[in-house]
């Protein structure tokens, strides 16, 4: 029997939630394991050898990928595998999933299935996105289940599904991705702001950070200039002492009412 796995990076839970729904649906057809990219940078090649179908999921950053996903891709040694790619976005990413599929192709991993999922806004300190009304939890679950069913049905019947592959989507993706990849990552690393007067030294941000950017120095939380804008610390600081742009008023705590943020880097086998 064929075996599948999904590698996922999720900042605040949206992409992880989608990945879990895909995993549960795929398990009706074949064994499927779920791995966190941030905890499997070093053993990715060993894991890839054990599976027939590879899933890759990530949130979209300016029609591009989070830097930690680029790092994961760079570590992959060429291998012949089949794959599917999915991404989460606030509005429209152009060819966000197709871009990831093209990068996988460079490693010999061929994706016939790509899908985008519109999820709630987690950029809670970005004024541009604050007008977007949050989706009710029941609507999120129903929407994701419908799209997951479509994706997995296509995979099961080997019928390609390539969202974002058309010329218009590629053009819009290029328009966003070019400026983003040129200007944002260098500035991103230095962007986290810490209000030491508000901070209560609970160390939750240190625990949550996927890049070990935050640590304790001289009795205060300090950053190591490795921020990737995952927004975990910003949204889960209990006193809202962290921000990228401006102080937040209402944090985003996940796509379900009882979402546990620690789950985003746990494996599900």
Q: Can you put this structure into words, describing what you see?
A:
The chain has 269 residues and is α/β, with parallel strands linked by helices. The chain has two domains: 4-172, Rossmann fold, CATH 3.40.50; 189-243, Alpha-Beta Plaits (2-Layer Sandwich). It is 33% helix and 19% strand. The chain has eight helices and ten strands. The strands form three sheets. It has a six-stranded parallel beta sheet with strand order 2-1-3-4-5-6, sandwiched between helices. It has a two-stranded antiparallel ribbon with strand order 7-10. Strands 8-9 form a two-stranded antiparallel sheet. A hairpin with a 2-residue loop joins strand 8 and strand 9.
Topology:
Blueprint: E1 4-8, H1 14-26, E2 32-36, H2 44-48, E3 53-59, H3 67-75, E4 81-89, H4 96-105, E5 109-118, H5 137-156, E6 161-162, H6 167-188, E7 193-194, H7 204-208, E8 214-217, E9 220-223, H8 232-236, E10 242-243
Parallel strand pairs: 1-2, 1-3, 3-4, 4-5, 5-6
Antiparallel strand pairs: 7-10, 8-9
Helix pairs in contact: 1-5
What distinguishing features does this structure have?
269 residues; alpha/beta; Rossmann fold; Alpha-Beta Plaits; 2 domains; 6-stranded parallel β-sheet; two-stranded antiparallel ribbon; 8 helices; globular
């Amino acid at each position: 029997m064929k075996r599948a796995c999904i590698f996922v990076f999720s900042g605040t839970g949206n992409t992880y939630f989608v990945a879990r729904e895909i995993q549960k649906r795929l398990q009706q057809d074949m064994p499927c394991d779920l791995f966190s990219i941030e905890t499997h940078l070093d053993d990715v090649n060993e894991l890839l050898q054990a599976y027939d179908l590879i899933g890759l999921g990530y949130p979209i950053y300016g029609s591009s990928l989070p830097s930690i996903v680029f790092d994961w891709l760079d570590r992959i040694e060429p291998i012949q595998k089949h794959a599917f790619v999915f991404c989460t976005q606030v509005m429209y990413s152009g060819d966000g999933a197709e871009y990831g599929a093209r990068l996988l192709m460079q490693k010999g991993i061929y994706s016939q299935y790509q899908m985008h999922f519109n999820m709630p806004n987690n950029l809670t300190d970005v004024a541009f996105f604050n007008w977007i009304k949050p989706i009710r939890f029941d609507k999120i679950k129903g929407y994701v289940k419908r799209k997951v069913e479509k994706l997995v049905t296509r995979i099961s019947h080997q019928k390609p599904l390539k969202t974002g592959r058309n010329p218009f989507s590629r053009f819009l993706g290029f328009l966003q991705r070019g400026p983003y990849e040129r200007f944002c990552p260098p500035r991103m690393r230095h962007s986290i702001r810490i209000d030491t007067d508000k901070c209560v030294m609970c160390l939750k941000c240190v625990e949550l950070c996927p890049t070990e950017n935050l640590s304790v120095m001289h009795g205060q939380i300090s950053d190591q200039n490795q921020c990737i804008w995952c927004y975990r610390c910003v949204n889960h600081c209990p006193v809202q002492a962290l921000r990228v742009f401006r102080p937040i008023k209402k944090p985003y705590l996940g796509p379900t009412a009882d979402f546990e943020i620690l789950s985003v880097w746990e494996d599900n086998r």
